[in-house]
Amino acid sequence: MTLTLPEKKQKLEPHRRKLGFWDSIQQRTPLGWLQLKKNKARLFVAVAGIGFADLLMFAQMGIQAALFDSNTLLNRGVDADIIIRSTQYRDLNLANTFPRRRLYQIQDLPGVQSAEALYISTVVWKNPQTRRKTQLTLVGQSVEHPAFNFAEVNGNLDKLKQPDTVMFDRLTRGEYAEVVAKAERGQTVKTEIQRRTIKVVGLFSLGASFATDGTLITSQENFLRFFPERGPGQVTLGLVKVKPGTDANQVLAQIKGILPTDAIASTKQEYVDFEQAYWQKTTPIGIVFTFGTVMAFVVGIVIVFQILSTDVNEHIGEYATFKAMGYRDRYLLLIVFEEAILLATLGFIPGLGLALGQYALIRNAAALPISMTFARLSFVFFLTIIMCMGSGIIATRKLQSADPADIF
C-alpha cells in the first residue's frame, strides 16, 4: 500500500520526538555539504571567491595597521613619561616647534627628574650604495641623557659627540645591504646630507614608515649644524622624566598649569594615540583603507549570494518536497546556513594562506612592520561567517514563498 505524504509525516513524527537534540544532530543527513560537493566546479569557484574577498580584507587591514605602526615607531620608542609638543603639532612631519625655555621652566618643578629637548626634521641624503637621493628622518638628541629605548643607540652615544656623525637605521627602505655590512664590520661609511659629508658610526633597528624611508640619529649639536637657520631654542619635542616614586599624572597636572598656549603636555601613551588618530581620521590614507575593507566585504556577499541563490534555485523542487512533508521554513534555512558556514570555512583557509604570503612580500619589499595577529585573523573569520550567513538569508527568501502545489 502506498502512503500519502501526510501519512508518511504522521508515521515519522513519533520517531522524531524520541530523538534528543544531539542525537538529531548526529543522525542528521548533511544535506548542505552533499549539495555543495555535487557540483565541484561551482564549489571551487565559491571557495576561490570567498578566499579572494578574505585576501582583500586581510590586505586592507594589514596595510592599515602597518600604516599606524610604522608612523608611530619613533613615537613609541621615546624614553619619557611626559611629552611636550607644540600646539600646532600634527605629526612628526608637521611637528612645528616650541621655545626651549618651556623645558627650563618645567625642570624646576618638584617631581621632575629631567626635561630634555629633541630635534626632528626630514633631510635628503645620498645613498652611499646607489648614490641616489632619498628622504630620511633626522633626530637630534642629547648624548648625556638617552632619548630612546634603543639599546644599540644608547650604547654608542659617545660616538655621536664627534662632528658630522650619525647612526643609521639598518631597516631603512632601499638598497643598503653593502652599507649595513660595512658598518657592522666597523668600516667607515661616508655620504652627504645638506651638502655636508657625514660618517655612519653605528646601526640600530627601527623601520621605515609611509612618510620617510628610514631614520638617522645624531647629537643635538650635529643636528643644528645641518640646519644653521634653526636656532637651538626651536624644539620639536620635550622629553620629561619624573623622579622615581612620583606620580606622573600629578606632575603632568603641574606642567599643564604653567605652560602657555604655545605648548601642550601629555603622557607618552596619549601622545602616541594622538599621532595614530591623526593618520586614522585626518589623512585620506586611513579613510581609503577602511573603505577598501568595506568594499571587500560587499564583494564577498555578492559572490556567496550568487552561489547560494543558484543552488537554491536548482533544488527548489526538493525544498518544496520538504515543505510538503511538513518541514518548516526554519529547517530549510538551516540547510542553507550549513552551506554558508561550510563555504566560509573552506574559503577562509586559502584566503589566510595567501594573506600570510602577501604579508611576507610586503614586509620584505616595502620594509613595513606588517604581520598577522590573532585579533585580525579572528575578526576576518567572523566577518566571513557574517558575510556568508547574510548571503544565505537573502538567498532563502524564495524558499519562504515556495508552494508545493506549484511544483507538483
Can you walk through the features of this model?
With 408 residues, the protein is of the alpha+beta class. The protein folds into two domains: 19-69 and 285-407, no CATH class; 88-260, no CATH class. 55% of the residues lie in helices and 17% in strands. It has helices spanning 5-18, 21-27, 31-38, 40-70, 73-77, 101-107, 151-154, 177-184, 220-226, 248-258, 268-282, 284-314, 316-324, 329-366, 374-395, 397-400, 404-407; strands spanning 82-86, 98-99, 112-126, 133-141, 165-169, 189-193, 196-204, 215-219, 234-235, 237-242, 263-267. Strands 6-7-5-8-4-3-10-1-11 form a nine-stranded mixed beta sheet. Strands 2-9 form a two-stranded antiparallel ribbon. Helix 3 (31-38) crosses helix 14 (329-366), helix 11 crosses helix 12 and helix 14 runs antiparallel to helix 15. The longest helix has 38 residues, at 329-366. The protein is elongated and about 90 Å long.
Order of strands across the widest beta sheet? 6-7-5-8-4-3-10-1-11
Rounded mean pLDDT is 82
Q: What's the tally of helices?
A: 17
How large, in whole angstroms, is the Cα Rg? 31 Å
Low-confidence stretches: 1-9, 11-26
The counted number of beta strands is 11
Compute the separation of the termini in Å: 21 Å
**SSE series:** HHHHHEEHEEHEHEEEHEEHEHHHHHHH
Structural class: alpha+beta
Question: What fraction of the residues are assigned to beta strands by DSSP?
Answer: 15-25%
The shape is: elongated
Report the major sheet: 9 strands, mixed
Number of domains: 2
Helix content: 55-70%
